[in-house]
Amino acid sequence: MAETASNMLPLGTRAAPFNLMDTISGKKVSLEDVKSHIATLVMFICNHCPYVKHVQKELVRLANDYQSKGVSFVAISSNDAKNYPDDSPEKMKEVALDFGYPFPFLYDETQEVARAYNAACTPDFYLFDKDLLLVYRGQLDDSRPGNTIPVTGRDIRNSLDNIIASKPVSTDQKPSIGCNIKWK
């Protein structure tokens, strides 16, 4: 695993459209299908990365806490499933069901969506406002595998709380750290 940081897409960037297969339902899901009138969190994750495994339960808690407040969530895996079979659509569905993902888990087979978002690592997070403009990108919180900091989702929770309260999101944002996306 190569420890990799987010590329930190410029704030204000418009969300790139996508139309990808949801490994849970077997149906195509687009940005238009999942966008929210409050905020939309696009998460680049995968199955095998220890950084993602470290935060999986918090991702489910986060979605369960905020979906009822009008925030939408979508997870995308862009890893090369041929060379990383644990990240195949079939395995993605297994993991999503095991953890009870309350959001679509999409497979970006061509990796075009990851490139459009300038995603670099898993996990990599992009929070868009009601107009689909980027207001936060970076880490979930300061917890990492092997450090003693608890996984709380603090950074994204603070940003979501500000959006819901119609307050500005702080521009003091730290990159996410994780495994590099496994490019073809």
Structure report:
The chain is of the alpha+beta class and 184 residues long. The protein has a single domain, classed as Glutaredoxin (3-Layer(aba) Sandwich). The protein is built from 5 helices and 10 strands. It has helices at residues 31-34, 50-66, 89-99, 112-117, 154-164; strands spanning 3-5, 19-22, 28-30, 39-44, 71-77, 105-107, 121-122, 124-129, 134-138, 177-180. The strands form 2 sheets. The protein has a 7-stranded mixed beta sheet. Strands 1-10-7 form a 3-stranded antiparallel beta sheet, with helices on one face. Helix 2 (50-66) links the parallel strand 4 (39-44) and strand 5. The radius of gyration is 15 Å and the shape is globular. The mean pLDDT is 96.
In short:
With 184 residues, the protein is α+β, with helices and mostly antiparallel strands. The protein has one domain (3-180): Glutaredoxin.
Shape: globular
Overall pLDDT score: 96
* Neighbour order of strands in the largest sheet: 3-2-6-5-4-8-9
Determine and state the CATH class: Alpha Beta
How does CATH name the architecture?
3-Layer(aba) Sandwich
Oligomer designation: single chain
Total of DSSP H or I helical runs spanning 4+ residues: 5
Number of strands: 10
Q: What is the name of the CATH topology?
A: Glutaredoxin
Main β-sheet: number of strands, strand sense, barrel status? Answer: 7 strands, mixed
What ranges have pLDDT less than 50 throughout 5 or more consecutive residues? none
How far apart are the termini? 16 Å
Q: Cα-atom Rg, whole angstroms? A: 15 Å
- Determine the strand fraction and express it as a percent band: 15-25%
